[in-house]
Amino acid sequence: MVDVWQPADLTNNTPDLTVLQKLATAAAQLELQGDVSDLLNDQQLASARSWMQFSEENWQAAIEQLSNDERLQLATFYTVAEVKLSGFEARDKNPAIWIFRYLKKTQQLPEKDFIKALKNKTDNRFIPYGSVL
After folding, report:
1. Cys bridge to 100: 35, 109, 122, 128, which one at CB 3.0-4.6 A?
2. Are 75 and 124 in contact (CB under 8 A)?
3. Closest C-alpha to 63, from 117, 13, 16, 99
4. Helix, strand or coil for residue 112?
5. What pLDDT does residue 4 have?
6. Comparing C-alpha atoms, which of 72, 79, 132, 133 is closest to residue 102?
7. In whole angstroms, what is the distance from residue 38 CA to residue 105 CA?
8. For the chain, what percent of residues have pLDDT higher than 70?
9. How far from the centroid of its chain's Cα atoms is residue 63's Cα?
10. For 26-82, what is each residue's pLDDT tens digit?
11. Which secondary structure element, helix H or strand E, spans residue 72, and what is its range?
């Protein structure tokens, strides 16, 4: 199967909460198996890719509605997806960065061990907080 780039849906500038929760749930399986096809359909994955084009501001409303565990699982999903799934290369625009900035702003950061483990899952030097400049 060839992945086809899907443009962001400009009529809705916020990621779908239900799909984000499914992505969060799929994070562990993606990490262990590198495949989430039995948990997520092609449309959900295409949406997840297209939302990576959204700005940090567009993500805030959805991030606020997630539980803290879901936020961490979603950050893990996007971090691992960048390494294991085609079309998820984001570098300094990875949604995990938007999640961690939100967590930092609201003083809800996870333990340092979690952050260290997350950084070990990627070669993206921008994870977890983005560019230092």
Report:
1. 128
2. no
3. 99
4. helix
5. 59
6. 72
7. 35
8. 90
9. 10
10. 999 999 999 999 999 999 999 999 999 999 999 999 999 999 999 999 999 999 999
11. helix 68-84
pLDDT exceeds 90 at position 93:
yes
What residues contact residue 105 under an 8 Å CB cut-off, 6+ apart? none
Query: Mean pLDDT for the chain?
Result: 92
**How many Å apart are CA 133 and CA 118, to the nearest integer?**
21
Q: CA-to-CA distance for 100 and 108, rounded, in angstroms?
A: 9
pLDDT at 6 over 60: no
Burial 107-119 (b: 16+ CB within 10 A, else e): eebbeeeebeebe
* Upper half-sphere CA count for residue 89 (Cβ side, 13 Å): 4
Long-range contacts of 28-37 (CB under 8 A, 24+ apart): 28/73, 28/76, 30/77, 30/80, 30/81, 30/84, 30/85, 31/76, 31/80, 31/121, 34/84
Are the beta carbons of 101 and 51 closer than 8 angstroms? no
Instruction: Give pLDDT, residue 73.
Output: 98
Q: How many helices (H) and strands (E) does the chain have?
A: 6, 0
